[in-house]
Design a protein that fits this description.
This protein is an alpha+beta fold. Helices cover 18% and strands 40% of the residues. The protein contains four helices and 16 strands. The strands form two sheets. An eight-stranded mixed β-sheet has the order 2-3-4-1-5-8-7-6, with helices on one face. A hairpin with a 2-residue loop joins strand 6 and strand 7. The longest helix is centred in the first third of the chain and has 12 residues. The protein is globular. The relative contact order is 0.18.
């Protein structure tokens, strides 16, 4: 099953949906689509001269997080394949499906609508990765699941023992990073940006209302104005690779 396009979804509390939209449109140099959903809880971030790859959802409960959407030619076939590899069907809809990976990470199968042009690097950064934070007991099975589902993607060890990277074919805008957590807790996900200069990007994001949470090896953890955590990483915004790799 060929995946034609990838989306990163920022899930934020419904009460802070407008804050999330204002921040992420500024960060990605995009504008909002018309709101969708029964409660107007979905929107797509629209770039100029390219196809979108980021969406925002207001969730009714919890702190939110992130999840991937995979745009495919045949949603039913993709869904059957995911179920055969160990996923569960979380919710079926007309024309699209919400699924749950073996570790509990939600993801969606949606119909491809002709998206083909990747958004450019803006402000020295690019939102290009979803990091799936996986408890240690589920990590090996989760790597196997995503490697099987994303056939045709490169499945590679990351820069650290606790990382595993799934890189899509050229042109697809969002890749996956699986991170093995140090403790047992529910699976979750967050957005990652590749930055030419982490400190410069951090300063710009703070002007937009984000807060510094922590600094790591080649990444910085931030919190957006809607309370969601995300990372600025020292990867090349054009290629997604770390320097020297």
């Amino acid at each position: 099953m060929s995946i034609r396009w990838t989306y990163a979804f920022a899930d934020r509390p419904a009460a802070r949906f407008e804050e999330a939209c204002a921040f992420w449109t500024a960060v990605t140099d995009t504008r909002l689509s018309e709101l969708r959903g029964d409660l107007g809880e979905f929107t797509t971030l629209l770039p100029d001269g390219a196809d979108p790859c980021v969406k925002v959802q207001g969730v009714a409960s919890g702190e939110g997080g992130a999840h991937p959407d995979f745009a495919v030619d045949d949603v039913d076939t993709f869904t059957e394949q995911a179920l055969g590899l160990g996923a569960d069907l979380a919710a079926g809809h007309e024309g699209w499906a919400v699924l749950r990976s073996p570790a509990g990470q939600l993801f969606c199968a949606v119909p491809w609508q002709g998206e083909a042009v990747r958004p450019p690097v803006v402000h020295g950064s690019r939102l290009d990765q979803l990091a799936l934070d996986v408890p240690p007991s589920a990590y090996d099975a989760e790597v196997a699941f995503w490697t099987g589902l994303l056939a045709g993607w490169q499945s590679l060890p990351g820069s650290r023992p606790e990382f595993h990277v799934l890189m899509p074919p050229p042109g697809l805008p969002v890749r996956l990073l699986l991170q093995r957590l140090g403790t047992e807790r529910p699976a979750s996900a967050h957005l990652d940006l590749a930055c030419a200069d982490i400190e410069a990007t951090r300063a710009e994001h703070e002007k937009l209302g984000a807060e510094l949470v922590a600094r790591g090896g080649h990444w910085t953890v931030m919190r957006d104005p809607a309370g969601g955590t995300y990372c600025l990483t020292g990867r090349d915004p054009e290629t997604g690779a770390l320097p020297g790799r």
